Amino acid sequence: MPMARSALAARALNVSQPAVSKVLRHTESQLGIRLFDLVRGRLVPTDEAHALFREVDEVFHRVTSLQQTANNLRNSGAGHLRIGIVPSLGLEVLPKAIAAFRAKNPEVTFDIKTIHHSDVLRSLYERECDIAFGYDPPAHPRLTLRKLASARLVLIAPGGSFERGRDSVSVADISSRDLIGVSSSGPIGDIVSAAQAQAQIEFREIASVDTYYVAAALVRQGSGVAIVDEFTARATSTEHMDVLQLSPPLEFGVHAAWLEDRPLSKLASRLVDLMKTVLRAEVELPVRT
After folding, report:
1. Distance (Å, rounded) from C-alpha 275 to C-alpha 133?
2. What is d(CA 89, CA 96) in angstroms, rounded to the nearest whole number?
3. What is the extent of the structural domain holding 219?
4. CB 259 within 8 A of CB 124
5. Is the pLDDT of residue 2 over 60?
6. Which end of the chain is less congested by CB atoms within 10 angstroms, N or C?
7. Domain containing 115 — which CATH number?
8. Nearest to 228 by CA among 182, 162, 163, 186
9. What tens digit of pLDDT does each residue of 59-100 get?
10. For residues 29 and 35, what is the distance between their CA atoms, to the nearest angstrom?
């Protein structure tokens, strides 16, 4: 049995059978447990092996995280900014801010990563980014948050879905419509859920997506309606789509986030100021209806 197990492992790993046999015997001897059984000619991990794998897998993830952090430290520099951004702010807001920034700082380079709400702390901690921009990031003792603007959620729908001349809808008005939901929308999803609970209604969700611009693409093709942030609506709406305000308004905050023990550089601080300026100008613009 041990020889058969090691022969299979040797072929899978493309190493000699004696080497695998020696390592397997030594490992099982040291651990005092059996790691593999031979079942119908195949090596099958034991329950104990599965339990150990979960622990080892976590260790490898930690090592990978450490290696990534070290690599990011090597590649960082005073003239290079690493930015984490939620997808909808990357459609127009960040590109406008970077264009204005480069007009005065043409020598600065950028590394821009799209992140979701749940990635903010990890991306900063692992030094994938120096600063992150998102919607109401989660509070954490290590995070410093700066609110840059308040924005609103809106409803996007295929053209003609509602009567002509109407410019707003309530959450209850949406309950009878095919809705495209956004599954990883974080605090914005919580805002919508709270409004739904208050109205005591159930949405007829026909699809769930990860990002607002995918929801907008489905709306554009006539698949249903979607509640999205105003930045996505402004960047993706067409003449064949309707954009309606929600009544009462559903608002959220747009924040910059960084680690408290890693203060922003002067360049990063300038970019935050520019993002605030662009955001304030954006939210004052009407969304096409």
Report:
1. 9
2. 10
3. 150-252
4. yes
5. no
6. N
7. 3.40.190.10
8. 182
9. 666 666 566 556 544 544 458 899 999 999 999 999 999 999
10. 10
